[in-house]
Amino acid sequence: MTAIDRTGIVAVVGTGTMGQGIAQVALVAGHPVRLYDVAPGRSEVAAGAITARLDRLVEKGGLTAAERDAACGRLSAVTELGGLADAHLAIEAILEEVGAKQQLFTALETVVSDDCLLATNTSSLSVTAVGGALRHPGRLVGLHFFNPAPLLPLVEVVSGFATDEAAATRAYDTATAWGKTPVRCTDTPGFIVNRVARPFYAEAFRLYEERAADPATIDAVLRESGGFRMGPFELTDLIGQDVNEAVTRSVWESFFQDPKFTPSLAQRRLVESGRHGRKSGRGWYRYGEEAGKPQPHTAEPCDAPDAVGFHGDLGPAAVLAELVAEAGIKVIRDRTTVSEGFIALPGGVRLTLTDGAAATTDCSGPHIRFDLALDYRTATRIALAPSDTVAPEDLRAAIGLFQALGKQVSVIDDIPGMIVGRTVAMLADFATEAVARGVASAEDVDTAMRLGVNYPRGPLEWADALGASWVRGVLWGLHDAYPTGRYAPSQPLLRRAAAEGKLLSS
C-alpha cells in the first residue's frame, strides 16, 4: 500500500458542499485536515459546518464523542494558501472552470513540497487540461467523489495523459484506506459514470419526444420492471435539469458531437423555461404541497386467457412459461424450431420480447411486444406495445395474461426497443465501448455503475445475463429504425462476444 500516512496533512481547497464532504471523509479516516477558500471567512464557516455534521454522527451512533473530539482537534481553517505548505495531499473542489483550476494548482506548486500529491475533484473537466499548466503534471490526478461524499462509497481515480502511475496508485490506495471503493479510469469525457450513464437519460427523453409514453409511465416501467431505483425523469429533477443537461452537453461536445451522445431538445426547453426540477418547484413534475404524486398509465383489469402457447426459445424471458403455469393458465408447448420464440394468444396474436424493432414491422401479422424485465418473477410492472393491427380483444388478452402473473401493465406506443430493452442495450453498448477503448476495466465499469448511480446490475454483467447476441440484436434493430449511427454496435468487443459467446464482464 502506498496510501498517504494517517499523520499526513490533507488540504482541501474550496469549501462548498463537496469540499466539506471530502474534508469530513479525510478527518474521520484520521488525517489532520486544513481548509482553504478564496472567499474571506468561508473556510471558518465550513469548519463549523463539518463540526456540526460530526456532532450529528455522534447522536446517531456513527462516532463516539471521543472520536468526534479528536477529529475536531485535527481540523483547522487557514486564510492564506501558504498555510497548506506542509500538506501531503491537496484536493481542490472549486468551481468547474479549467482556467480557475489551472490557476489554483499553479499557485499550489509554488507552496507545497515536490512530493505532495495534487488532486482535482472535477466531475466533467479534463484532468489532462487542468494539469497542462503545471511544471510537474505527473503528480496531478483526478479524485472524483460522489455527493454526498461521506455516504457514497465510489471514487473515480482518473489518470490524465501526463499523470504518473505512482501518483494514481497512491491516490487509489489512499481512497481505499479511507473506506471508499475506488475505480481506475483514463481521462475521458465523463470518466466512467457520467459517460456510461448517458443513455439512461437520453433514451427516456427520446421516448418522451416520440410520444411513446408520458414521464410517469417511463419512470414506473424502469423502476418496477427494470429494477432501477429511480426513473430518469424523477432523477434529473432531483439532480437539477440544468446540471444534468450541462453534463450531457459537455460530454457530447467533448466527443465532437458524436450522435450517440446527442442531448435532448425537450430537456433543453425545460432548462430554458427555468423548470430545473425540485429546487425550482417544477421540472418534468410539479413539486410542493399541492402537487400530487405522478401516476403512470396502468391498464384496467382484464380477463386472462385460459391457455396460451409457448413456441421456441424466449431467451431472457424464458421463465414466463413457469410463471404462466404457476398462475393456473394452461401452457401448450410447441417444440418446433422457430426463428423467434413467442407466446401465442388464443386469437392467434403473437407476444414477443422486444428485439429492437417495432411490432408493426413484423411480417407475421398482428403482434404485441413486451418489454425486458430485470427479473420477470419479481417485476411488478410490464410494458406492452401492440402493432397497429392488433384488435382490442387481443390486447386485453395480453394485458390479462400479465395481470394474472401479478403485474401491472402499461400499454405504450409501438416504439422500437420499448423502454427497458433499449435502455439496457444502450447501457451495455456504452459500457463495452468504454472497456474496448481502454477507459477502464470491465470490473471497474460495473462497480462504478452499481455504486455511483445505484444500477441493479453492472451493464456488462447484465449484458452477459441477457446474452451478447440479444443485446447486439436489439442495437441493430434500433439502428435499422434510426439509421443515424446512434445505435450501431460499432465496437469489436461486443461483436466478438456475440459471435464467440464470451463474457463481457470478465
Descriptive report:
This protein has about 500 residues and is an alpha/beta fold. The protein has four domains: about 10-185, NAD(P)-binding Rossmann-like Domain (Rossmann fold, 3-Layer(aba) Sandwich), CATH 3.40.50; about 195-280, N-(1-d-carboxylethyl)-l-norvaline Dehydrogenase, domain 2, CATH 1.10.1040.50; about 305-410, Transcription Regulator spoIIAA, CATH 3.30.750; about 420-450 and about 460-500, Orthogonal Bundle (N-(1-d-carboxylethyl)-l-norvaline Dehydrogenase, domain 2). The protein is about 40% helix and about 15% strand. It has 19 helices and 15 strands. The chain has helices at about 15-30, 40-60, 65-75, 100-110, 125-130, 165-175, 195, 200-210, 215-225, 230-240, 240-255, 265-270, 320-325, 390-405, 420-435, 440-455, 460-465, 470-480, 490-500, and strands at about 10-15, 35, 75, 90, 115-120, 140-145, 155-160, 180-185, 305-310, 330-335, 340-345, 350-355, 365-370, 380-385, 410. It has an eight-stranded mixed β-sheet, sandwiched between helices. The chain is elongated, with a radius of gyration of 26 Å.
List the keywords:
506 residues, alpha/beta, Rossmann fold, N-(1-d-carboxylethyl)-l-norvaline Dehydrogenase, domain 2, 4 domains, eight-stranded mixed β-sheet, 15 strands
